[in-house]
Amino acid sequence: MSKPIKQIHLAAHFPGVNNTTVWSDPSSGSHIDFDSFVHFAQTAERGKFDFLFLAEGLRLREQGGQIYDLDVVGRPDTFTVLAALAAVTDRLGLTGTINSTFNEPYEVARQFASLDQLSGGRAAWNVVTSWDAFTGENFRRGGFLPEDQRYERAESFLEAAHTLFDSWRGDEIVADKANGVFVSDARAGEFSYRDAHFDISGRFNVPRSPQGRPVIFQAGDSDHGREFAAAAADAIFSRHGTLEEGQKFFADVKGRLAKYGRRHDQLLILPAATFVLGDSDAEAADLAHEVRLAQVSPQTAIKFLEQLWNRDLSDHDPDGPLPTVDPIVGENTIARGRASVRMHRDPIATANEWRAKAEAEGLSSRELIIEVTGRQNFIGSAATIAESINHLVQADASDGFILVPHVTPGGLDPFVDRVVPLLQERGVFRADYEGTTLRDHLGLDVPDPSGAQHPTAVTG
């Protein structure tokens, strides 16, 4: 029996929290003006994408005691942006990244439940944790948590939020056009949740939305993160987008689902991916080279080197070889609060790997950074990109992709205009929305408010 053809899931990531954005492009626009968000969201909806993904940071970027001015340093509040976008879109899902380390379950659950209601069941929550004291300084609790405790709190946080979402079964509301809306069950919204992290009880005042509760995303790649996703997430925002690495990640995470009583189709794997589209593959390759040079300027290359070497390299020549000195190892890093720091578990080993690669391929410092910081890219003509995306999805390297254009807000338009029609012709991507909620778009079940389908939380 032949394997069924999979339908591709596509989403759009509004860029701008790192050096992905090419500011020097003449078509580059604002990352704060609402018109930019509207254009981007409406383009994604025109392309029948599943959802828009919005990242959020809780701090300004800092490196060496200075504001890191080579990245976008701030963005309007996630809930405010997504709620506003709900009014100018009809079907597009709205995914926000909200922290579980420094927020509280009732507040976050109420905000997402409100967004879900106002959008007609299109909200999703990307659950993240914070690992550094730099972010913690912005909050009363301050400090930071070790990895195992961060995930333990996140699991507890999500369970508490689910308890709040499910405190309404969905049948407690009675609508009477003459007399208004009233609650028919005295227990509606009643909740109680107690564990080592939270001790809360009371009444949750936002009823269930058409999709039951918001879709849950998770972006962690550690073993804790993968287990958390298998237990409690609906989708993973992954960085494993190549064929071999994607298949390994796909098999690993999906293989963890059975012990939580879950099917393979109850968790979607969606890697981030950039793209450069040209009239031919050769033209696209030339454009991609120019994009990477713009994304990794000489100054940006030095900043990336400093994040690994943990020392001031402002006098280093980015067009010369890598530094000959070894990185300084320790907790006090030159790049406080930057996510890339935690990716280097062994800085000296990583530096040696980079040196070996640079020597073998004849790469300068900047050229090396361009190589090692590149994401999964789709580069080519519209036909080539459509074929590549479909091949990876059908080969179980992913269930689809979250696309990150390098120009805002119009960078998604060429993909929607030229690649999406080819995927539709192949019959692997929808010609129109078939449902109204994000769970409809993703093919996910509506959760049982009784808690019967609740996965058990992972204990750290």
TrEMBL record:
Start and end residues of each Luciferase-like domain: 23-394
Region (Disordered): 440-460
Binding site for FMN: 97, 151, 222
Family annotation (SUPFAM superfamilies): Bacterial luciferase-like
UniProt keyword Flavoprotein present: yes
Family annotation (InterPro entries): Diverse_substr_monoxygenases, Luciferase-like_dom, Luciferase-like_sf, NTA_MOA
Gene3D superfamilies per record: Luciferase-like domain
Superkingdom assignment: Bacteria
Keywords, sorted A to Z: Flavoprotein, FMN, Monooxygenase, Oxidoreductase
Pfam families: Bac_luciferase
Listed GO MF terms: monooxygenase activity; oxidoreductase activity, acting on paired donors, with incorporation or reduction of molecular oxygen
PANTHER family: ALKANESULFONATE MONOOXYGENASE-RELATED (PTHR30011), C2H2 FINGER DOMAIN TRANSCRIPTION FACTOR (EUROFUNG)-RELATED (PTHR30011:SF16)
Family, as annotated: Belongs to the NtaA/SnaA/DszA monooxygenase family.
Stated name of the protein: Nitrilotriacetate monooxygenase family FMN-dependent oxidoreductase
